[in-house]
Amino acid sequence: MNVMIRAAEKAARSLVRDFGEVEHLQVSRKGPGDFVTAADKRSEEIIFEELKKARPDYSFLMEESGKVSGQDQDNIWIIDPLDGTHNFMHGVPHWCISIALESKGRIEAGLVYDPVKDEMFRAERSGGAFMKRQRLRVSGRTDLESAFIAIGSIPLPHSAKNQESFMAELNAVSAKAQMTRRFGAAALDLCYVASGRFDGYFERGLKPWDTAAGSLIVKEAGGFVSGIDAKSDPIYNKNILAGNQAIHKELQTILKSVSTS
């Protein structure tokens, strides 16, 4: 975990400096797109170099560079150097760095760092989940009608079928839960479930680096994580459903009824 923290903090300093430039780029005709892409890659390079230095044999799975096989293929760093890219690009201070360690097919450690708010969420298997020194617990709310539910966007590619399925799920959940929001950073959505800020969260069209760290943090905070379709491995099945026990179960029932209707 100390290795992960050092890598995240070093990359965060670079991203925070770049984020300070985004406001100026927003008013230009070209916009900040190319600049943000470069910032994303810089962050990934910093994290890669720091983790490689500490664990030279480990393998990597990264958003920008894909899979990098090391001598040790049982241990894999899963990295999202900038989750919430669109928020970052538009000067919205809601984005993060996500790093997880997968060992022999299980996520053993996860870290999500929001440098703007200076909130670092972390967990190690069977060791609990924390934000700074505060132990995290999922919410105790059991009533979906008063629950705060985070949602994802229409999965890419934005086909008519994907849009129709997404709207059907959103309408079904919104009919029961009065508060649904889209925040645009999957790793933070999961951490907010772990800390009790959100009661539940679901999204399709995700990648392992979006969910690997956050899913462990939710579990270690006493929450439940699965695929929307109830498959056992939400990290590699491209969709995820998370919440406390009661909200997770109710959301799963609603979403299953939509998919089979």
Structure description:
- The protein is of the alpha+beta class and 261 residues long.
- The protein has two domains: 2-135, Fructose-1,6-Bisphosphatase, subunit A, domain 1 (Fructose-1,6-Bisphosphatase, Chain A, domain 1, 2-Layer Sandwich), CATH 3.30.540.10; 144-260, D-Maltodextrin-Binding Protein, domain 2, CATH 3.40.190.
- Helices cover 40% and strands 26% of the residues.
- It has helices at residues 2-26, 33-54, 85-89, 160-174, 186-194, 208-220, 245-260; strands at residues 58-62, 66-68, 72-83, 96-103, 106-114, 119-124, 129-131, 134-135, 148-151, 179-182, 200-204, 224-226, 239-243.
- Strands 2-1-3-4-5-6-7-8 form an eight-stranded mixed sheet, sandwiched between helices. A five-stranded mixed sheet has the order 10-9-11-13-12, sandwiched between helices.
- The protein starts with a helix and ends with a helix.
- The mean pLDDT is 92.
What are the key terms here?
D-Maltodextrin-Binding Protein, domain 2; Fructose-1,6-Bisphosphatase, Chain A, domain 1; 2 domains; alpha+beta; 8-stranded mixed β-sheet; 26% strand; 261 residues; single chain; 5-stranded mixed β-sheet; 13 strands
Give the topology:
Elements: H1 2-26, H2 33-54, E1 58-62, E2 66-68, E3 72-83, H3 85-89, E4 96-103, E5 106-114, E6 119-124, E7 129-131, E8 134-135, E9 148-151, H4 160-174, E10 179-182, H5 186-194, E11 200-204, H6 208-220, E12 224-226, E13 239-243, H7 245-260
Parallel strand pairs: 1-3, 9-10, 9-11
Antiparallel strand pairs: 1-2, 3-4, 4-5, 5-6, 6-7, 7-8, 11-13, 12-13
